[in-house]
Amino acid sequence: MSVEKMKILGVIGKKNLLEKVLRQVILSENMHMTNALSRVNSADFFLPPSEKNIEALEEEPFLKPYSEKRDFSQDEKIVNLFLKIFNIEPQLNKDFLTEEYDYDDFMRQFFNVYKEISSIVDEIDIKLREIDQKREYINNLKYLTKFDLDINNFINMQYLVFRIIRITRENYDKLKRNYENIPAVVLKVAVEGGYVVLISIAPVTLEETLEKIFSSLNYSILPLPKEVNGTAQEVIEQFTRNIEEDQKKIEALKSSIEEYKIKYRDELKKLFSRLEMEKKIEELKSEIAIGKKLFFMFGFVPVSYVYQLKDELEKNFRDKLIILIDDANTTSFGITPPTKLKNFKIFKPFESLIKMYGIPAYQEKDPTIFFALSYMLLFGLMFGDVGQGFILILGGIILGLIYKKTDFGGLLSRLGCSSVIFGFLFGSVFGSEEILPALLVRPMENINKLLIFSVLLGVLLILSSYIFNFINIKNKKATGEMLFESNGLAAFTFYVLLLYVIFRVFIKQGTLLPILWISLLGLLLAIFFKGLLISKLFPQEKAYKKISLNEYVEGGFGIIEMLLSMLSNTISFIRVGAFALNHVGLYIAFLTLSHMVNSSWGSWAILILGNIIILTLEALIVFIQALRLEYYELFTKFYRGNGIEYTPARINSSLLEEEKKILKTNKIRFSWIRKILSFFRFRKGGLGLYVYDLVYSYVNSRAHYSHRFLSCP
Amino acid sequence: MDKIIIYSAVNTKIKVMEREFLEPVDYVNLLRMRSIPDAVHYLKENLYYKKILEEINPDTVSRRDIEDILKRSMIDNIDKLIHYFHNDYRKFVRSLYMKYEIEDLKTLARAIFNREKPQEIETPLYFLGKYSQIEADILFNAGTIRDLIYSLEGSEFYEFLIPLVDGRRENLFRLEMALDTSYFNIVQSRKYKIFPKDRELLKKWEGLVADLYNLQWIYRGKKFYRLLPEELLNYTISFGDKLNYQDRQRMCYARNLEELYQMTLDSPYGFLFKKEEIYTDIFMERRINRFIYYRLKELSRQEPLSIIQIIEYIWLYELEVKDIVAIIEGLRYGLPSEETRKFLVKVI
Questions:
Q1: What is the DSSP letter of A88?
Q2: Which CATH number fits domain A138-242: 3.30.70.100, 1.10.10.60, 1.10.10.10, 3.90.1150.10?
Q3: Which residue of A198, A251, A302, A313 has the fewest C-beta atoms within 10 A of its own C-beta?
């Protein structure tokens, strides 16, 4: 319904309580932290002089920001190892955090366990490496199985060197061609891929020469075990048995780890949550100010929760804390109250489109309801179709189930509803106008009426956005601005009068009364000299104290711009009617095509294809066109959207740090468009992406333009 | 018909780029210069090098900077031309980076071996990763030869280097030899889908280069390294144009340099040695390059629409850069221009 009212909650207490207080604040998920030093230094900060506050008053002038940073890398290492070894899903569970506990004591019990377990893990690693080594031996010994001899005789010869080597085929060819010059017996035992495995036997005295020659062939030695007895087959069997024994040992070690798991299971589950909590606490500390003994902490809390939070804190800490509650003041420098939008569930999904433009400032009126109603109206008018609207509703529900976090599903189904309603009014089902009777009007048969109606609707919407602007300015208590700003009362009157003049002269064919054009001119002059007028009439308004020549030049262009935009904004709404016609027109085109096809299958296929194209392409275009009408024609008149979003300190938000970063850019808010496009098989890089980019740059440039436009003095 | 489609555009481009080569008179003028700044000024006034040397200040520039920039321009040239090729032709052009990358890898390995920091390496290593597609930073971070070999995992060089990592043979010589072997193995084993005529030319050309390098290798191996004949033979490139296996084997088993000299005289490459210089081989490399230079010019005249055009351009540019660097080095170390002239590939 509106922007929720905020209070500033201040907590002052002994430093040793800080972590516990923060933990509770995080668990309550209601506090939007703000910088404590800016708060203490702001003009309206007041600490009542009482006995209880003496210490705090003493420390107040000497506060400094909290600068210690605790390093959690060791703790993280421990936690990650445990999660990996014990196969525990990292999950956040509040039950583990609400219990009374001390983090350091809690962690300490794990240090020893960590040492023991990591030594077991190391042991397993060593064993695994041994197994690998033995497997390699087995592999290499396989080349010798065809010789039924004790391989000890080979390996430990006194005057000859025996080895198995591997070289590439090309190099083997070189060796073979020059074999007469090689001082060794070389035997090919296997060919594997591009490699050849060889046995070489050479006298020890020629070992060095041979080594050089083999090196030039880029050989690798296949290692053999040193002390073995028996034939290759026997040795292989022996190693296989060894490996089995080792594996049993590993199993035993693993089960001993399992014992730890059973013993510590409950505590282990708490690990992850508590570490995350500690990290979050550390993050929040940057906003806190500390003195010698005390800490000062401030944050915004919605009015509906502030007393509840205060009670909770008082219950846990009794009188050890000083708790201050003040009204959120919008004027103090450095602390802007955050905006929390509070709307009925029907309008909630539209908040995401509002946020795409900008979040309303704290004192600004929340435009969500106005936006939601007008947006649905515009969308329905442009895309009124019972059948396709129904598909949109279905699609919205499915998307809502799949992507629970985004609002897009809800948005789509609401737009679908509006489309269905207008479908009944226009009598249109899947484009066809023959099935249902029109309850109101058939667009194609009343083209002129429809276009005029849409412009009138635009006038109505523009007028209401002026009124919205008055409310916003009134909240700022700037009467002068309200009267003479380019979207103020003077401009509003001018617009109404202008419309009347147009109506009288062009439609009624009447004459232009002198009083009319004189007052029009007067209003224009008033807007032109707004600086002068405001400083004379309302001298308390700071913004207009100084007036320079520049301002008149700017004002002159401002007036031209205002006149142009009045005209273009109004005419712009003609597109509402045009798109309603377009919907029917596109269908007619496909209907004609389907008549041209002889087979009934073919004509049905064309109709279905046509409907799919209409549904995807037109729905998307209408979605965007309605959005640009809202943003450009209406929002520029009254909406600034320069607020800060209310993000209370809570633990999962730190978990999703990455996601938050992405969310900050508009891209993710648009990602649903991308999702839809890919839904309809427009694959990445194809038409879909192209359309997406167009849409993105289009809407974004509009939004940017209007922002820039608004921020001009 | 197809040939025209492939080569007409790129050959025009190459012809335009070849026009930017230095003229003989430029070499004469460069040799007359008295200092590096003078030479750089001259190059900057010359049309083409003006663009390349734009950023540097001739008065403070060092020999290293010039080498740096010229080397980068070599990459730029290949980058420019590679866009004209597709499919296997493009693969071939990409493989032109390989030779230079291997040179850079060797330089890097030498620096690692001597425990220098990568930043202190004298010559710039721009080609690292150009062919192997390995991030240059990963290679620079290698602290030992072993690390370097492991960081090449995923490239075509890896399988040739991995046998070196068994503790005993991790030395520089083996690594350099393995890298060279890998180059010629890759060159030999690749099979491109290109025109038969092009394939033939490529084979002939690569065989010629292999012959020259084999001769140089056998000569140096005998003279400086005193390698075993078997070793020498194993390290030779196993293909060639005019020299076959028997020729190479005979040369490797030659009893002394005199005998080797006699053997080369019987081969088409007798010009490589001069009897009176047989114990001072400093000009051998120049003779090889000079031979390559004229051979390429000849081939490219004979085969205007063929793969030899791009090979010619890349080689000639490299040789020109070599000459410029040689002149600059001559200036740096105060060599008389008559002496410097002897080291140039081009006959001035």
A1: P
A2: 3.30.70.100
A3: A251
DSSP A397-450: HHHHHH-SSSSHHHHHHHHHHHHHHHHHHHT-BTTBSSSS--SS--GGG-HHHH
Of B185, B231, B249, the CB nearest to A213: B231
Q: Pairing mode, if any, of strands A322-327 and A64-65?
A: unpaired
Task: Output the pLDDT for position A407.
Answer: 80
Which pLDDT band holds residue B31 (cuts at 50, 70, 90)?
A: confident
Read off the pLDDT band of A345 (50, 70, 90): confident
Testing the interface with A: which of B158, B164, B169, B234 to mutate, by most A Cβ within 10 A?
A: B234
Q: Is A180 on the interface with B (CB under 8 A)?
A: no
DSSP-derived letter for residue B84 is T
Q: Report pLDDT for B143.
A: 81
C-alpha dist (Å) from residue A3 to A173, A302, A334, A631: 84, 10, 20, 20
Mind listing the pLDDT tens digit for each residue in A6-57? 888 889 988 888 888 888 888 888 889 888 888 888 877 888 888 888 888 8
Restricting to B residues 239-268, those with a Cβ less than 8 Å away from any Cβ of A are 245, 249, 253
pLDDT value of residue A557: 86
Residue A192: name the closest of A234, A160, A164 by CA: A164
Average pLDDT, whole number, for chain A?
A: 81
Residue A1: both structure tokens together: 């319904």
CA distance A630 to A627: 5
Query: At A697, is the pLDDT very low, low, confident or very high (cuts 50, 70, 90)?
Result: low
Least confident window among A13-22, A611-620, B25-34, B273-282: B273-282
Structural domain boundaries of chain A? 2-66+288-327, 138-242, 342-478+556-711, 481-540
Task: Please tell me the CATH code under which domain B85-194 is placed.
Answer: 1.20.1690.10
Q: Which of residues 188-217 of A touch B (CB under 8 A)?
A: 209, 212-213, 215-217
Query: A461 falls in which pLDDT band (50, 70, 90)?
Result: very high
Q: Which of A282, A339, A110 is nearest to A651 (CA)?
A: A282
Q: What residues contact residue A518 under an 8 Å CB cut-off, 6+ apart?
A: none
* Chain B residues within an 8 Å CB radius of A196: none
The number of angstroms, rounded, from the C-alpha of A216 to the middle of its chain's C-alpha atoms is: 58
- What is the CB neighbour count within 10 angstroms for residue A539? 11
User: Is-contact A82 A271, C-beta < 8 A?
Assistant: yes
Q: Counting Cβ atoms within 10 Å, is residue A104 exposed (0-12), middle (13-18) or buried (19+)?
A: exposed
For residue B233, give the chain A residue with the closest CA: A174
Per the CB < 8 A criterion, the answer to whether B309 and B11 are in contact is yes
ipTM: 0.78
The continuous run of DSSP H or E covering A535 comes out as helix A530-537
Indicate the CATH number of A2-66+288-327 among 3.30.450.40, 2.60.40.2380, 3.20.20.70, 3.30.70.2170: 3.30.70.2170
Contact at 8 Å (CB) between A389 and A417? yes
> What is the separation of C-alpha B215 from the centre of its chain, rounded to a whole number of angstroms?
16
**pLDDT score at A422:** 93
- A529-571 tens-digit pLDDT: 877 777 777 777 655 556 677 778 888 888 888 888 888 889 9
To the nearest 10 degrees (0 to 180), the angle between helices A103-141 and A232-284 is: 160
Q: What is the pLDDT of residue A659?
A: 43
Tokens 């070289």 sit at which residue? A167
Chain mean position to CA A149: 70
- One-letter amino acid at B208 equals L
A606 alpha carbon, distance to own chain's centre:
40
The full set of domain ranges for chain B reads: 85-194, 202-280
